[in-house]
Amino acid sequence: MEEKQGFFKRLVTGLTKTRDYIVSGMDSVFSGFSKIDDEFYEELEEMLIMGDLGVKTTMKIIGDLKKKVKEQHVKEPIECRQLVIDSIKEQMKAGDTAYEYENKTSVVFVIGVNGVGKTTTIGKLAGKFHEQHKRVILAAADTFRAAAGEQLKEWANRAKVEMIGGQEGADPASVVYDAVAAAKARKADILLCDTAGRLHNKKNLMEELRKINRVIEREYPQAYKETLVVLDATTGQNALAQAKEFNEVADITGVILTKMDGTAKGGIAVAIQSELGLPVKYIGVGEAIEDLQKFDADEFVNALFYSGTTEDE
Ligand SMILES: Nc1nc2c(ncn2[C@@H]2O[C@H](COP(=O)(O)OP(=O)(O)O)[C@@H](O)[C@H]2O)c(=O)[nH]1
Ligand SMILES: [Mg+2]
């Protein structure tokens, strides 16, 4: 229970900027209007869009709110607060947020453009799984820059797991081949593959992923495959666009949204689930190894609209 509270507290803290921005803005709309009229709806709509919830999702939320206001004969703007919260939760019901891979022999591909936080996130995941006494192997399949392998190696040491790498410029598929051999030899539970995301060349990326997939299919058919796309929440609508593009070239099974601690654009989590139907599986709320959390839509919205204090009592 205590751990659960600490967990929620970290989430609340991580979402401070988004909350200060969207929620305080919304609250000023709820308390600043004396009646529910067109102007009220327009202001609320603007707040939601500025909070990066996306135009489509915002329209659904406003439409839903108008319907409820009518049906339930709501008169006071402040009563709309809870209705909006419920509606956001409703919009976020994306497919089921499964974590099956965690309990299977699995290969996890982590893809995404440069700088979004792939390597960091792999380090955090490795730390989590290692703590759960799972046998983890990292594959440094981002061979584009030598520094990428070194950075992953640091994370491997921090998480106390093994890493398989290759020379700078080596074929990523050959690194994955070696990593699969190691995973089989050590009876690893989870093989986490870091990749170099070069979305500017879709054809190359597609080719590369296909080649890697062929290696897995041939060498490790028994493994459960998970493909997670990492998106930087601070980029707002841009993150949504990247998710769409990656979804066209790979079978994305989930999204990891990083840097939620450093942005007022945390509302993007709502847009991704609502508009793309892709489940957000984890969020990054800081740079340390423990700053990765499983994503729960209800908990996320509760933390976003939390109005208590996170100071230690
Ligand atoms: N504040 C914050 N920074 C993060 C988070 N995730 C990653 N970063 C930082 O983002 C930068 C890029 O991360 P990196 O893992 O190298 O990205 P990659 O190019 O996708 O592998 C690093 O400085 C990380 O410390 C997060 O959740 N919060
Ligand atoms: Mg990297």
TrEMBL record:
One Pfam family for this entry, by name? SRP54
The record's keywords, sorted A to Z, are:
Cell membrane, Cytoplasm, GTP-binding, Hydrolase, Membrane, Nucleotide-binding, Receptor
EC? 3.6.5.4
Q: Does the keyword Calcium apply?
A: no
**Which reaction does this enzyme catalyse, per its entry?**
GTP + H2O = GDP + phosphate + H(+)
Stated membrane topology is:
Peripheral membrane protein
Q: Look up the record and give one Gene Ontology term from the biological process aspect.
A: SRP-dependent cotranslational protein targeting to membrane
Q: Which residues bind GTP?
A: 112-119, 194-198, 258-261
Q: Cross-referenced InterPro entries, in alphabetical order? A: AAA+_ATPase, P-loop_NTPase, Signal_recog_particl_SRP54_hlx, SR_rcpt_FtsY, SRP/SRP_N, SRP54_GTPase_dom, SRP54_N_sf
The UniProt entry, under Gene3D superfamilies, shows:
P-loop containing nucleotide triphosphate hydrolases (3.40.50.300), Signal recognition particle SRP54, nucleotide-binding domain (1.20.120.140)
Q: Which domain of life is it from?
A: Bacteria
Q: Where is the SRP54-type proteins GTP-binding domain?
A: 279-292
Q: Where in the cell is it found?
A: Cell membrane; Cytoplasm
Q: Which NCBIfam families match?
A: ftsY
* Family of the protein in this entry: Belongs to the GTP-binding SRP family. FtsY subfamily.
Its protein name is Signal recognition particle receptor FtsY
- Which species is this UniProt entry from? Muricomes intestini
Lineage per the UniProt record: Bacteria, Bacillati, Bacillota, Clostridia, Lachnospirales
